[in-house]
Amino acid sequence: MLNELKNTAAKINEIILNDDFPSIIEPKYLRGTVIDYPGRGGKRLRPALLTWCCGLLGGDPQKALYPAVAVEIYHNWTLVHDDIIDDDDVRRGLPSAHASLTKYARDNFRNLRFGAEKFGRDFAILAGDIQQGWAANMMLKAADNGMSPEVTIALSRRMQELVTRELISGEALDVEFPMRGLKNVTSREVLDMLYLKTGALLRFCAEAGAAIALDSTDFNSPEIRRLGDFASTAGIAFQLRDDWLGVFGNFSKFGKSLGSDLAEEKLTLMLMKAYESLDADKKYKLMNLLGLESYTMDVIEEARELFIMSGAEKYIRQKADHLAEEAKTILEKFPDNEYRGWLSELTDYLVHRDK
Amino acid sequence: MLNELKNTAAKINEIILNDDFPSIIEPKYLRGTVIDYPGRGGKRLRPALLTWCCGLLGGDPQKALYPAVAVEIYHNWTLVHDDIIDDDDVRRGLPSAHASLTKYARDNFRNLRFGAEKFGRDFAILAGDIQQGWAANMMLKAADNGMSPEVTIALSRRMQELVTRELISGEALDVEFPMRGLKNVTSREVLDMLYLKTGALLRFCAEAGAAIALDSTDFNSPEIRRLGDFASTAGIAFQLRDDWLGVFGNFSKFGKSLGSDLAEEKLTLMLMKAYESLDADKKYKLMNLLGLESYTMDVIEEARELFIMSGAEKYIRQKADHLAEEAKTILEKFPDNEYRGWLSELTDYLVHRDK
Hints:
mainly alpha; Farnesyl Diphosphate Synthase; homodimer; 2 strands
């Protein structure tokens, strides 16, 4: 499966690097930011999900490549804007988009009335905006590469009506929750938010792959819906693993980002569960570990103890395992072929990865 | 013509207000921001241009309504992000998107670690992002309303390949120029920037109307190109009038925004021309009028004097008139019908309006 993941990633990288959409963007450093994240590589999980779901239902994964690139670029524009919002200076071990642009401004302009940071943020907003258009355009290009005009339009609409609306709503809620405060948010709300923020794009990947295979525009057909459920369910498991790794991950593998959810006071499901279970004294201790300037191993250890003691750590592991099993059960009703095997292994991989 | 403009605006408003795209956006105040600017009305110049260009070439303007709404929503998302970048707190006499959201945060959240202003900006970024998707979706909906799938795809692609790339590049250059400083930018570069920032979307409106009328996907056909040239040329004239009004407009009609280009140190063509013509002493005086905290009538008068003395004021008026004439000359080669009359009157109106 991991080999096949690499094969898929190589095809995706080739299309991204050779696409001429960014070519006429000015100024040049803005063009550079537009191609930066999409060109950084990564596992290309979403393209793999999309093309494999196409293969699962007997479609030609080759026909699904442009839509697969589209979802990858789509994912990347959301990262550029999320990094501004979360004030994250690092992305995949390199400076984030706005951090790079801030540095560029410092090195190149003298008349920075509002400061290099504002320049960095402003141009990163514009870079993400262009990437959003690039993603929409890549999806439309599928019509030149073997997809029918009807399916091309249906997928393009579904990307906006499902993904844009739900993913951005999820991102907004994720930012809003800490401002409402722990006491005023329920773990049910956090779970619902995850289905929007993480689930919507993954659901779309599966639906798109299925729709291409079946040459269908009916997203209400049971087959497409079920495959969407698989992806969305596996996606939440993936996200819960992410939350778990954010506290219980290996320091040498996770590096700086260990504790970053705590630093940003993100209301993860694990935090909600711990808060709901602990007594007043321990609740207070937990609250005091949020929003700190830095997270030493001692602080992380203290947090780990509270998460374990409250049962939240175990709950999250079990919940992730349970969701992964649920996802694989859905998968079992689909044809037994190599794609099904890869999708099943991918699901296991997502909830057991240690970085 | 002004009556017909109102008729077109009414049809556009009806589609915008009844579209269900924003319906499932959460939280509710984000949904409110998404529908805010598009619902504020305005002249709806871009939809008029698009539908009239369709009528000009014998098409049914009714068939062009969804694309016309799409360009209007597209225009609005760029305003939301521009207002963040320019730090503008007012839009059409009401609080700008990020200013409204800042107020909402102040009134509703207690735990604003990064302040209400950051919340306002972050959520306005997300609102503009959703609007960009809404615009793309509205264009695709044309396929349900009488447009062929092929033309729908072609227009959707053209919107990204022409407008997204050029308009955002233009916006980026407009923000970059003041940071490079007056001495390091030429008036040629400023004019080129206007063709990107203002010209691209207007060109697209004309092209789209023509493509719908001709049921064509060939944006290189002479007829579509010429009509695009008309709109782009008229658009620059419109923009130059805007720059002129920003200094020479009537205070009671233009209100607070008089002098705002000077306050933001925008490198307008008028400023470039003045700077290039004045002697060192007057250059210095002009520079001292940029980036002030407030603009009293005395300061505005001082600026007016320098613009007149340098010949820049006259140059801009003549340039706008010249471009308007050029646009109308292009128009004369098209069929003589009521739409041509309206488009010609619209061109005159744009360069002679006093607000």
